[in-house]
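Two quick folds needed for the group meeting slides. Do the first one here.
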Amino acid sequence: MKKTFKLTHEKIAPARLVEAIKHEVKKYIKRERNKPLPQDADFWDFDCRFGADQENSVVIHVAEIDKAISQAEADNLESFYLEIVAKPGHRQKRVEAIEEELE
């Protein structure tokens, strides 16, 4: 999903727009996570970018999307850009577990 969301509407309150956007994002992530995984993948990972526009967007973690949208509302932005790209993820061993195995 690569989309610019508008936070202004002549008939809909900004708070309702924000709720609708958050719902759309959660629905998209859920839909992507329910897709079948490739053979070598453990889970679906997401590359996310957020900003006032596409050129000024920065990388964020998927868990920070709601906070970023709320911050955009608090900053009275008229619109913001959100990019969420699903990719297969691979689990990695924790450093602590690796150190225990070596001992």
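Then this one, please, same format:
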Amino acid sequence: MSRLPLLVILGATGTGKSRLGIELAQRFSGEIISADSMQVYRGLDIITAKVTEEERAMAPHHMLDVVDPLKNYSVIDFRNSALAVINDLLSRTKLPVVVGGTNYYIESLLWEILVQDPSGYEVGDLVCGNGNAKRLKLVDESLSNQELLEKLEEVDPEMAGRLHPNNRRKVIRSLEVFEQHGRRHSEILKEQRQAGGCGLGGPLRFRDSILLWLRCEQEVLDDRLDRRVDSMVKAGLLKELLDFHERYNRERMESNAAPDYTKGIFQSIGFKEFHDYLVLPEDERNGEKGKRLLQQGIEDLKIVTRRYARKQKKWVTNRLIRRQDRQVPPVYTLDCTDVDQWNGKVLEPAIAIVSARLRNETPSQSPVNENVKNVKANDSSNEEKHTCEICERTFIGELQWNAHLGGAKHKKMVQKKKELENS
């Protein structure tokens, strides 16, 4: 048998990633690394759709229930812990099977990030799965957006020329890179590309990675997700939320005077959607108002879940399939639209792909990203900034710039300027 690959199972929520992960771990003597930013927290097992105790007994699982629910946990924390697990599995000739819906977590494992402080705090391009990256504060953040951009123009004019003046987060990040490393952020990004990376990060960490992408027809998936929410309610979702609210959230709300759903497990899809119901006195929960708010929470949960599934699909398309400037492992699609055909459409093709790779052979199925050509990748590392003096507006990238030039507002301003000049 050749060198073991890193197997990654991608897909929107509700596509069966956990099921396939367990089946492949059983078949190939593997162990599962959960890559879910909410499942790392203890508690809320139903709302975060964790695998059951019975499922965990079918294959060893890692990175589940490892963090206190009130603690902030960044993608950097996840990456460092998960890599240790992966390296241990590989040393014991166990197949690492990464299963998850938090794509930034998966990205942190697949690619090396070259801009990192020795203390472990990121100052480069990697961001948190929850959007709140752990970051060194090396820049005076009391400065205005324009003042920050002017500082960046002094130390790294090339990077300043790519960033919108109002993109405060990225301007600060580039300033921090310079303060921490004494080098321009733009130079480090160039090195990433030369090393086989791109503006999104460095080269591949595991050269033998395999990506299996579970795909489902959108209409079918929407219905499946709605039914899954209904199943969660029947499984005890409301009791779980109420118990958790009483144990953790009520005290936080009383001390902070306002709920904070940007930290810890409270970021989970589903918790804040039921906020108005959860804060009702017990007697009101059983009344008409409670029933109305409960039903609204269920409907809101269905909406945000469907929206999140679309976001996950878009991420895979834009960050993996369409990135021709990036080292991307082969991505194989599996059609999970009809669960009655799971074995023939999903499991058997997946087994064939992994088996071929383990034999150091080329799978008969071609990866979906094999023949994607002439797709331009856009990010702040390769886009230019354009400023319209007439409209006094700034745009990043040719797409936004050309759209502005062809827009009715711009043409109206140009015509108005001509009339003033001729008057």
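Slide caption for protein two: The longest strand covers residues 210-215.
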